[in-house]
Amino acid sequence: MEAFLSGSVNVIHLLSPMAVWTRFGSHFPAKIVAWNHVGGSALTVARNINSLNDLGGKQVAIPFWYSVHNVVLQEMLRNAGLKIVTKQKGKLADNEVGLIVLPPSDMPPALLSKQISGYLVAEPFNAIAEHLKIGKILRFTGDIWKKHACCVVYMHEKDLQQHPEWSQKVVNGIVEAQLWCRSHRAEVARLISREHKPRLTPHIHAVIAQVVNPDSSRHKFYVSTGAIKHAAWQEHRIDFQPFPFESYTVELIKRMRHTQVEGNPAFLKQLNPTVAARQLVDDRFVRKAIQKSGGMKAFGLTESFTRQEVFQL
């Protein structure tokens, strides 16, 4: 984010609520031009935690205050009758859950050492806890907010205005990559694991494959444990779909308004969610890229650039 704000880089992958925060909280002229992945996050807990209520009196980690992880987690906790605490001054009450921010890579070690009792974050850190047998998945976020965006493609507004041809090529490349990933899941798992060149991540193939190309038996297992409650949605553990639906941004801003964060979120109350969504998102380039790649149906969607948000705990 610092490199982006300083102009050192032109395009970044970031948490969707962070885009809202930088655009309207910091008044930085940038736009969401596409989504990166949908779903791909989960609430992972210690093996002795069997329900949300078991988290009472304990700490749970998130990657950042302005994250869809924080938004969804707080909705879950409130629905379970638990109180969120962001500034812990003493021992937590039995009906309180303390939220702390940790880098994702620090979350599994913190869970193992019992510094925290759970974390909600993007993959593959949930799969890492499963692989090491130090935690289990209590609920997938994509099973709560259907096909929600996690991270987005964020670009400087001046580049979109001054270099439209270059901007279009950037978005074309991202859309083409997402489409390829959808139909080459086994190869994606191989390419991005540390055992294979070009070694795009430090994670082992067994963990990556569990996320990108899981065995069908895993889906049945998660249905049996309650980690998946909406099996009819047929959600992938992680999926790729580039179009930034306006309805999602509108709903996100509405939910961010009653999500506790550190700092001053007063700017959110001043926003008209629909107007803000249109100011934040520039979908001109991704529309062209999607049509070039076979339309929305190529991503398993209906040929529509609108949808209704589904959020079911």
From TrEMBL:
Annotated localization: Endomembrane system
Domain of life: Bacteria
TM regions (residue ranges): none
SUPFAM superfamilies for this protein: Periplasmic binding protein-like II
Keywords carried by this UniProt record: Cell inner membrane, Cell membrane, Membrane, Transport
InterPro entries per record: NrtA/CpmA_ABC-bd_dom
One Pfam family linked to the record: NMT1_2
Protein name: ABC transporter substrate-binding protein
